[in-house]
Automatic annotation (TrEMBL), chain A:
Keywords: Membrane, Transmembrane, Transmembrane helix. It comes from the Bacteria. The keyword Ligase does not apply. GO terms for cellular component: plasma membrane. It is found in: Cell membrane. It comes from Jannaschia rubra. The gene is cysW_4. Signal peptide: none annotated. This is Sulfate transport system permease protein CysW. SUPFAM superfamilies: MetI-like. The keyword Transmembrane applies. One of its GO terms (biological process) is transmembrane transport. InterPro entries: ABC_perm_TupB-like, MetI-like, MetI-like_sf.
TrEMBL record, chain B:
InterPro entries: AAA+_ATPase (IPR003593), ABC_transporter-like_ATP-bd (IPR003439), ABC_transporter-like_CS (IPR017871), ABC_transpr_LolD-like (IPR015854), P-loop_NTPase (IPR027417). GO terms for cellular component: plasma membrane. Keywords: ATP-binding, Hydrolase, Nucleotide-binding. Its EC number is 3.6.3.27. Pfam families: ABC_tran (PF00005). Residues 7-230 form the ABC transporter domain. It comes from Jannaschia rubra. This is Phosphate import ATP-binding protein PstB. SMART domains: AAA. GO terms for molecular function: ATP binding; ATP hydrolysis activity; transmembrane transporter activity. It is an enzyme of class 3 (hydrolase). The lineage of its organism: Bacteria, Pseudomonadati, Pseudomonadota, Alphaproteobacteria, Rhodobacterales.
Length: 234, 236
């Protein structure tokens, strides 16, 4: 209990004093996660929509595989990305290992199946409602997917937030491919792991509180930005 | 003028999992007027409309328009028994078919506002369409179906579950539309069929049992089953 209170106090202190290191780590966390999320959404949302409207022979198998990929162990993803980006790996020439770009790649791989799967479920239900209408109106396949993406934006927001939550809290993969280098690849989760290892539980808890606050803030901001039934959309 | 009609069904059959739902149907729909499809529940009214509109492919036989299919699809509309409202505003629902066809936003908006005025929804433009009442939603669905000036409109029991006032309003819209649009409508309301029909198709067990001019059908049905149906008897 004492550690918890001390952690809250430390978090408050860090925030109030605008601790430069905290701000740097927080901004890097946000930057890495939001970039990974943007990539995951760019791939996962249309993929979810496509799986909802398209019928093909291996569709069920594809959906099952997608759902199975949600459970990918982050550490394994980190290891695979590490091997791909390491100097002797196929992408080693890019020199991305131990950079934020490597962390973005690992996070994008981890959360894309999650985003695509939730998006697929949301759009599958909407597609059941819209199917006949859109076919009747002669909408092209891309118009159908676009309609589902626009009208299903609440479900898609949930998909994106789930992806954000998984990515911002991820530690194993980013530790492996980022290396937790101070001033370069240290993010909130790796900093928490480091401080816990050092025995500075108060600081670790303080960073944890900030991490949770960040997730809440992004969630609230997203709901506010994407709220439906707004006037003046035209 | 190039027209999508007549529509010809030749031995058209709709089947699901080996069971015939409708057909074989031989039918020609020429231009002009309103055709009302009647029949007891399960007789295949909805299936026939869906088959004609192309929502379902025939298992056998042919459904042919006077124009190629791709062109014919753009000249028809369909109103569903359970109106489908997009999760958007009334205005956006009305403009939607035009936007799908690439009509510029400003023109689509103007047409949607005009359509809303004609069906009495102009005070609901920014309201979320799914929050409309049943009657309002069906008016919206009909106005949205008519906004592209289709040559032919399929309406599947558009007044089912509506009260008298809402039904009168929908019928008024259908009568106005019938001046320029060929209407094919399914209903189980005989009063409505008498008020709207120029032609009647009486379906029984998925097949056309009797068809012809509405006056002749209602005054002197040729078959025992049609007579029984008009008398309100239960048909097995």
């Amino acid at each position: 209990m004492q550690d918890l209170l001390a952690g809250l106090g430390r978090a408050l202190h860090l925030i109030v004093t605008l601790d430069p290191e905290l701000i740097e780590i927080t901004l890097r966390s946000l930057g890495v996660t939001l970039t990974a999320l943007a990539i995951a959404c760019a791939i996962g949302l249309p993929l979810g929509g496509w799986l909802a409207v398209r019928r093909f022979r291996l569709r069920r198998a594809a959906i099952a595989a997608l759902n199975a990929l949600i459970g990918l162990p982050p550490v394994v993803v980190g290891l695979v990305v590490y091997l791909l980006l390491s100097r002797s790996g196929p992408l080693g020439v890019l020199g991305l290992l131990f950079t934020p770009a490597a962390m973005i790649a690992a996070q994008a791989v981890i959360i894309t199946p999650l985003v695509a799967s939730i998006a697929h479920q949301a759009m599958r239900d909407l597609w059941a409602d819209y199917h006949d209408l859109l076919i009747s109106m002669n909408a092209t396949r891309w118009q159908r997917i676009a309609t589902l993406l626009i009208d299903g934006r609440r479900g898609l927001l949930t998909a994106a937030l789930a992806g954000f939550g998984r990515a911002i809290g991820e530690v194993g993969a980013v530790m492996i491919v980022g290396g937790n280098i101070e001033g370069a690849t240290r993010v909130l989760t790796t900093a928490i792991a480091l401080e816990t290892g050092r025995g500075d539980f108060a600081l670790a808890l303080g960073l944890g509180v900030i991490l949770i606050g960040l997730s809440l803030a992004v969630s609230v901001a997203s709901h506010w930005a994407l709220r439906t039934e707004r006037r003046g959309r035209w | 003028m190039v027209t999508v009609l007549p529509l010809r069904l030749t031995g058209a059959t709709l089947a699901r999992r080996g069971r015939t739902l409708v057909g074989p149907i031989d039918l020609t729909l020429a231009a002009g007027g309103t055709t009302v499809v009647i029949g007891p529940n399960g007789s295949g009214k909805t299936s026939l409309l869906r088959l004609m509109h192309g929502l379902q492919r025939p298992a056998a036989g042919r459904v042919e328009w006077a124009l190629p299919d791709a062109s014919a699809r753009t000249r028809q509309s369909y109103v569903f028994q359970q109106p489908v409202a997009l999760r958007r505003s009334v205005l956006e629902n009305l403009a939607f078919p035009l936007r799908l066809r690439g009509v510029p936003r400003a023109r689509a908006r103007a047409a949607a506002e005009d359509a809303a005025r004609r069906v009495g929804l102009d005070d609901r433009l920014s309201q979320s369409a799914p929050s409309l009442s049943g009657g309002e939603m069906q008016r919206l669905a009909l106005a949205r179906a008519l906004i592209t000036d289709p040559e032919i409109l399929f309406a599947d029991e558009p007044c089912a579950a509506l009260d008298g006032a809402a039904t009168r309003r929908i019928e008024g819209m259908l009568l106005s539309a019938a001046a320029t649009t060929r209407i094919v409508m399914a209903t189980h309301d005989m009063g409505q069929a008498r008020r709207l029909a120029r032609e009647v198709i009486f379906l029984l067990h998925g097949r056309i049992h009797e068809s012809g001019p509405a006056d002749a059908f209602f005054d002197a049905p040729r078959t025992l089953e049609a007579r029984a149906f008009l008398n309100g008897d239960i048909l097995e």
